[in-house]
Write a structure and sequence with these properties.
Layout (H helix, E strand, L loop, with lengths): L3 H8 L3 H4 L1 E6 L3 H17 L4 H9 L1 H4 L1 H7 L2 H11 L3 E11 L7 E4 L12 E7 L10 E3 L11 E3 L11 E3 L9 E3 L5 E6 L4 E3 L8 E9 L12 E6 L8 E2 L9 H18 L12
């Protein structure tokens, strides 16, 4: 059961004004190490199967019971519920990985730009599986920028950009106003889908690993009419706008891979609308 004091803690943060809050103490050091080891073992097991490895990184909560438990974590649910209410779905839970001493970056962007959703009733809880600081390429936010709604973006498809289309905000961003979102492993941040955010390269000797859990209200829907795959993690769905997934049938289960593969076709259609999807980096 979620404690009243925990909910009040998040109510006291000015998310509506800034568009973000951090840190959220999601899980302890021992538990996050177990989750990380499980994921990295799965990566090793799928190293000779690039298609399934890609699905693992896009759908960890549908393929690994440890990540299914993570997206249902009561501390993350408490934080997201203060913004969206008690009925919550996870639209996706993709991994963002910067290898040790990697030049990979994430340019300034807004999450909801290409997701094809009909509203902004979404918040992302970004969970650090490894230490995220300035040296390792942690996220940085522009406070209040979520009030800008969606601004123009440019698709770069840059090899060093971790985003699906290498998308980048094409209006001026005042980086002097940015706030570094430094997290210990097991902590999380939460941000609005319109918030300007970015991250730099990883200059450390450890991987920088994060899981971006995208919580939405069940009232949301895909503008294309597709019933994309989601997980109901709190409350009820009174709308039927999505395909509701069950918990994973096991660890790296064949049936779960087939389900994720079918949804990846929908995600590719949505995320790469109007461009060549073979250039994309996700799904």
């Amino acid at each position: 059961m979620i404690s009243e004091n925990y909910i009040k803690k998040y109510d006291s943060n000015n998310y509506e004004e800034t568009g973000f809050l951090f840190p959220i103490d999601a899980v302890g050091a021992d538990e996050i190490n177990i989750i990380r080891k499980d994921f990295e073992l799965a990566e090793a097991e799928l190293s000779d199967d690039p298609k399934r490895l890609s699905l693992l990184r896009s759908y960890p909560a549908n393929l690994l019971p440890s990540f299914d438990r993570l997206i249902r974590n009561e501390n993350l649910i408490a934080a997201a519920s203060t913004i969206l209410g008690p009925d919550l779905m996870v639209w996706s839970s993709g991994m963002f990985i910067k290898e040790a001493n990697s030049p990979k970056i994430v340019t300034w962007h807004q999450d909801l730009t290409y997701w094809g959703l009909d509203d902004e009733e979404e918040t992302t809880c970004w969970v650090a599986l490894s230490k995220a600081n300035e040296a390792s390429g942690c996220m940085k936010f522009i406070p209040g920028s979520h009030k800008e709604k969606i601004v123009p973006h440019l698709d770069t498809f840059d090899d060093n950009n971790l985003l699906s289309r290498g998308q980048e905000i094409s209006v001026e961003v005042d980086e002097k106003k940015s706030v570094l979102i430094e997290l210990e492993a097991g902590q999380a941040s939460m941000h609005h889908g319109h918030l300007f955010h970015a991250s730099g390269p990883n200059k450390t000797n450890d991987r920088r690993i994060g899981c971006a859990i995208r919580y939405i209200k069940p009232s949301m829907k895909q503008l294309t009419g597709d019933l994309s795959l989601v997980t109901l993690v709190s409350g009820v769905d009174n709308y039927g706008h999505f395909t509701i997934s069950d918990r994973p049938n096991g660890r790296l289960n064949n049936q779960d891979f087939e389900l994720c593969s079918r949804d990846a076709e929908i995600k590719r259609k949505v995320l790469y609308s109007g461009v060549d999807s073979t250039k994309g980096k996700r799904y």
